[in-house]
Amino acid sequence: MKGLYFQQSSTDEEITFVFQEKEDLPVTEDNFVKLQVKACALSQINTKLLAEMKMKKDLFPVGREIAGIVLDGILPLDSEDPGLCEVVRVHEHYLVHKPEKVTWTEAAGSIWDGVRAYTALHYLSHLSPGKSVLIMDGASAFGTIAIQLAHHRGAKVISTACSLEDKQCLERFRPPIENSTIA
């Protein structure tokens, strides 16, 4: 199995990327699944965080946000498998179902913003049905996910737009008006 890794120089300033052939994945353990990678988002490599966590290795796997098909049985930070490869082992608790209309690329690219939006709305603001929420720059990747999550929870959403194009994009998220009879 070939995967992309980054190699940090001894000066800790220069980073080089290498494709490396690795032996096949070990047999899946309890609560792990084998995932065929369809898309991978290349996120920023935080060398300071790796240094603080004292993760000194020759090679670090690249690509943490992935989308794919379960073959058998979100890569954690301590995973030895890069996301930018053909097949990885993933713990079952890191998996979510991909909606049919979402492409593989969109799924892999929206993980970071999705986790941020979910954390902000559900854990930090305790958003519930009937509450109102202001989402700045609603046409951004973060904004569109936050709007959809807020609508899903039954909240009233108010958003800002930076341009006419952004406003038109936001109009598509407006919930449909239901026909109801007033007695």
The amount of helix comes to 25-40%
**How many angstroms does the end-to-end distance come to?**
66 Å
Kindly report the name of the CATH homologous superfamily of the largest domain: Medium-chain alcohol dehydrogenases, catalytic domain
The 3D shape can be described as elongated
Number of distinct beta strands:
8
Describe the largest sheet: 3 strands, antiparallel
Beta percentage is 25-35%
Strand sequence of the main sheet, in spatial order? Answer: 2-1-4
What's the number of domains?
2
Task: For this entry, give a set of tags.
2 domains; 3-stranded antiparallel sheet; Quinone Oxidoreductase, Chain A, domain 1; 8 strands; GroES-like_sf; Crystallin zeta like 1; 183 residues; NAD(P)-bd_dom_sf; alpha+beta
